[in-house]
Design brief:
The protein has helices at about 25-35, 40-45, 95-105, 125-130, 145-155, 160-175, 205-210, 300-305, 310-320, and strands spanning about 5, 55-65, 70-80, 80-90, 110-120, 135, 135-145, 185-190, 195-200, 200-205, 215, 230-235, 240-250, 270-280, 295-300. The protein has about 325 residues and is of the alpha/beta class. The protein has 2 domains: about 5-175, Trna Endonuclease, Chain: A, domain 1, CATH 3.40.1350; about 185-320, Roll (Archaeosine Trna-guanine Transglycosylase, Chain: A, domain 4). The longest helix is centred in the N-terminal third of the chain and has 14 residues, at about 25-35. The protein is elongated and about 70 Å long.
């Protein structure tokens, strides 16, 4: 029982030397580690709902197709059993249906076939954009966060030191692709709340103060964070009211399913459930912040009473980060 790796244009030993910040680096690192960790490969297959057996797994990176003239990111094959093509993206958007259709013919003939989208987007969001199948081939989605969790599980179960080494190296590299909450961050994402009505007798402020929740549009290109913040700060009436910890978050395609009072808000959102309010030591005015602009501040600059305004706390935070 072994994995075999073929790489276009690179010797396997140089793969980790290619690491950078683009999707090619991440897919090369993932493919190389799959070839060196049967634990990870089996975990990935199980996660995709595919049968695990004793046969060798052939892993190919940047494989060229004679008919479609394209290069796939990662292909996993078990002779006469299953064939998987993984198309990876560094950002939120999954591969297009045209791109998946282009490669669907490559997996025809296998007993089990799968096209897998891999991007920073969580599965509920990506599933809204992807077809369930292309030319009869099932389509699945993986987020970089899910891959990283599989890597962590494999590292805990691996028996060999060399295998664990590669898994730990991959885990560190994938940190740049994961949109999970950074639980050790002390930064607060400060937003403004409106007194306007969201539903009869229910204001936007009440989403936070009555429902202990907050939501905003989800995905790249929205202008909102793609990484859930650890803390949210809320201001209205010209001053900071409180800071609240983000206890949990989820992607919600239709907010009305979470609370009927939110049903008029269209589109996919990320929904935060909030901890109790933490109020500043003294009044902190908004300062030089334009209307509904959103800013990031270190939590101590907001709660300690050291600064008079949110804008001053923002500027101090920026100075620290330089």
């Amino acid at each position: 029982m072994a994995n075999r790796l073929t790489v276009r244009g690179s010797e396997p030993a140089s793969v980790f030397g290619l690491l950078g910040a683009d999707e090619n680096a991440a897919t090369f690192a993932l493919g190389w580690t799959l070839a060196n960790s049967r634990t990870l490969a089996d975990g990935l297959l199980k996660h995709l709902g595919l049968a695990i057996g004793p046969e060798d797994i052939l892993i190919e990176l940047q494989r060229h197709g004679e008919q479609d003239r394209g290069y796939t990111d990662i292909e996993l094959r078990s002779p006469n059993r299953w064939h998987i093509i993984i198309e990876a993206k560094h950002g939120w958007d999954p591969p297009s249906q045209d791109q998946l259709t282009r490669y669907a013919n490559r997996v025809q003939g296998s007993i089990e076939q799968r096209l897998v989208s891999l991007s920073a987007a969580a599965t509920p969001y990506a599933s809204l954009l992807l077809p369930s199948a292309v030319l009869g081939v099932p389509v699945s989605h993986l987020s970089w966060g899910e891959v990283r969790r599989l890597v962590g599980q494999a590292a805990a179960a691996a028996s060999g030191s060399r295998e664990r080494l590669w898994l730990n190296e991959l885990d560190q590299h994938l940190g740049g692709y994961v949109a999970d909450q950074r639980i050790d961050s002390n930064l607060v994402y400060v937003v403004s709340l409106s007194h306007g009505s969201l539903a009869q007798g229910y204001r936007w402020i009440d989403v936070v103060e009555q429902s202990d929740s907050y939501f905003h549009p989800y995905g790249a290109g929205t202008g909102w964070p793609v990484t859930p913040p650890n803390y949210l700060g809320f201001r209205y009436d010209g001053r900071l009211q409180y800071v609240r910890h983000v206890d949990s978050h989820e992607v919600v395609p239709a907010l009305g399913s979470a609370d009927p009072r939110w049903s008029d808000v269209e589109g996919t959102h990320i929904l935060y459930r909030l901890g109790p309010p933490m109020r500043p030591a003294r009044e902190i005015r908004t300062g030089r912040i334009f209307r509904a602009a959103r800013v990031t501040c270190a939590i101590d600059t907001l709660l300690s009473g050291q600064y008079d305004t949110v804008s001053a706390a923002r500027d101090a935070t920026l100075c620290r980060r330089k």
